[in-house]
């Protein structure tokens, strides 16, 4: 790990400080045949295994027919290929040209529905080695008839910034979400567990994946938080343990309903 950090320290990131871009978008959304509001978050390491990621998202029972996918560590070519393959609309804002990835690096939101508006949130604090800036992608969307705001998040690692600085990054998302009156989904790789759970919990968010296991190595860093939505009953959420070699992270998913919604229960004749 120290050798990798030393190598990375030799090169600095080229950060995209313009809050309006670069911005990429595509429109490939088809018919949503699944009534469940399925949310997926997946860090696909440096967009290196896009074919494997597509196969996983198409064939795994718990990941098929997603309504919202939050992707991290993406370049635009990878986002576009996944959106085309799954029939989803997308918006992507790279935060920087990453020296290790040798290309653009950032977050994307894919939606089986309408993206009505979107924006980029520039997060505070550069990483201590590559001086990398982080940015969050936010979009106001309509999926399954529900109008909500979704965020795709990738906070800095513990090697790059301190815990208090990571708290500042999480608070920047909370401040943005506070200005939106409807349901909110915050999903991604937080490079933290308890700290971000505390920040979003204090802001009124439900930690849907609190009991999720390890999503990368020995750490549980990939999560979903919601406001104004509720888990289906019985709860359907989890981690896909076999990620098909698509990444060093495991994808996380959950099925949600508008808060207060009642699911009809089938009865016999």
Number of helices: 5
CATH architecture: 4-Layer Sandwich
Query: Could you say how many structural domains there are in total?
Result: 1
The string of secondary-structure elements, in order, is: HEEEHEHEEEEEHEHEEEEE
* Low-pLDDT windows of residues: 1-8, 262-269
Look at the structure and give the CATH class. Alpha Beta
What general form does the structure show?
A: globular
Share in β-strands? 25-35%
Distance between the termini: 63 Å
What kind of sheet is the major sheet? Answer: 9 strands, mixed
Describe this structure in words.
By secondary structure, the chain is of the alpha+beta class. It has one domain (33-258): Deoxyribonuclease I, Chain A (4-Layer Sandwich), CATH 3.60.10. 20% of the residues lie in helices and 34% in strands. The protein has 5 helices and 15 strands. It has helices at 2-9, 50-59, 76-86, 163-177, 194-202; strands at residues 14-15, 24-26, 37-43, 68-74, 89-98, 103-111, 114-122, 135-143, 146-154, 184-189, 206-207, 222-227, 229-231, 237-239, 252-258. The strands form 2 sheets. Strands 1, 2, 3, 4, 5, 6, 13, 14 and 15 form a 9-stranded mixed β-sheet that branches. Strands 7-8-9-10-12-11 form a 6-stranded mixed β-sheet, with helices on one face. A hairpin with a 4-residue loop joins strand 5 and strand 6 (103-111). Helix 2 (50-59) packs parallel to helix 3. The radius of gyration is 18 Å and the shape is globular. The relative contact order is 0.17. Residues 1-8 and 262-269 have low confidence and may be disordered.
């Amino acid at each position: 790990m120290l050798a990798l950090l030393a190598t990375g320290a030799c090169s600095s990131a080229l950060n995209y400080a313009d809050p309006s871009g670069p911005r990429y978008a595509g429109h490939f959304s088809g018919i949503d045949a699944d009534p469940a509001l399925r949310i997926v978050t997946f860090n696909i390491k440096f967009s290196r295994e896009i074919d494997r990621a597509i196969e996983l998202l198409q064939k795994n029972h718990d990941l098929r027919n997603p309504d919202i996918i939050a992707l991290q560590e993406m370049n635009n070519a990878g986002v576009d290929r996944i959106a085309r393959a799954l029939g989803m609309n997308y918006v992507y804002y790279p935060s920087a040209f990453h020296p290790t990835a040798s290309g653009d690096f950032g977050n994307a939101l894919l939606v089986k529905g309408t993206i009505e508006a979107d924006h980029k949130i520039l997060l505070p604090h550069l990483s201590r080695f590559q001086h990398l800036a982080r940015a969050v992608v936010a979009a106001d969307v309509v999926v399954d008839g529900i109008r909500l705001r979704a965020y795709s998040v990738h906070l800095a690692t513990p090697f790059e910034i301190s815990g208090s600085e990571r708290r500042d990054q999480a608070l920047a998302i909370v401040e943005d979400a506070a200005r939106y009156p409807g349901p909110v989904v915050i999903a991604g790789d937080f490079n933290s567990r308890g700290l971000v759970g505390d920040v979003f919990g204090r802001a009124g968010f439900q930690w849907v994946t609190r009991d999720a296991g390890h999503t990368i190595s020995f750490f549980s860093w990939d999560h979903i938080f919601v406001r104004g939505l509720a888990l289906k009953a019985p709860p359907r959420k989890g981690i896909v343990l076999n990620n098909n070699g698509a990444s060093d992270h495991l994808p996380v998913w959950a099925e949600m309903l508008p808060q207060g919604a009642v699911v009809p229960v089938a009865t016999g004749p």
